Amino acid sequence: MRERILAAATRHFAAGGYHGSSLARIAADCGLSQPGLLHHFPSKRRLLEELLAERDRRDVRAVGGWSEPGGAGVLDFTRRLVAHNAGQPDVVRAFAVLSGEAVGTDHPARDYFVERYRTGVAALAAGLRRGVAAGELRADLDCAAVAAEVLAVMDGMQTQWLLAPDRFDMAAAFAAYTDRLRAAITAPDPAEG
């Protein structure tokens, strides 16, 4: 039943955001009463928190886990993640709506998104730094800036895809972006120098 509730909450949050969704409608969508839903999730905020945590767990599992890739391997990880996301529009829509709402200082998911971006940039930057240390990537690479750029491009492409899924191939566009980025950040071959 928890899975059914999380799926219904994803659809409702995708359509109406956190503030535009109600526990009563989510419960009804699952064939439950509101007290029945509250048996599984004691509050709307707790439901939101579990939905976001479960989304993160599923995404990491779906793309083969996070094994702290180094160098351009971080681009491969993000590429797999975007390809995975292309198959789950409701989840991506819920994430986009909720992250947009979370710019408000009183949103219950604000801390989650602030931390998610902080740790996402830190993890990608650490992987890029491993590539610099190994000589795979350019020594002058601003790893934190590139990591932030990758996440920003992912989010921007997700928005374009959500607005026009029949005209914008998110997975192909992101793959082309990572190919260009890889060429720009790869260290020159010493044999060619």
From TrEMBL:
Residue ranges the UniProt entry marks as DNA-binding: 22-41
SUPFAM superfamilies attached to this UniProt entry: Homeodomain-like, Tetracyclin repressor-like, C-terminal domain
Cross-referenced InterPro entries: BetI_C, Homeodomain-like_sf, HTH-type_TetR-like_transc_reg, HTH_TetR, Tet_transcr_reg_TetR-rel_C_sf
Signal peptide residues on this chain, from the entry's feature table: none
A molecular-function term among this protein's GO annotations: DNA-binding transcription factor activity
Coiled coil: none
Keywords, alphabetical: DNA-binding, Repressor, Transcription, Transcription regulation
Domain HTH tetR-type: 1-59
Domain of life, per lineage: Bacteria
Keyword NADP among record annotations: no
PROSITE patterns, per database record: HTH_TETR_2
Pfam families: TetR_C_6, TetR_N
This protein's name: TetR/AcrR family transcriptional regulator
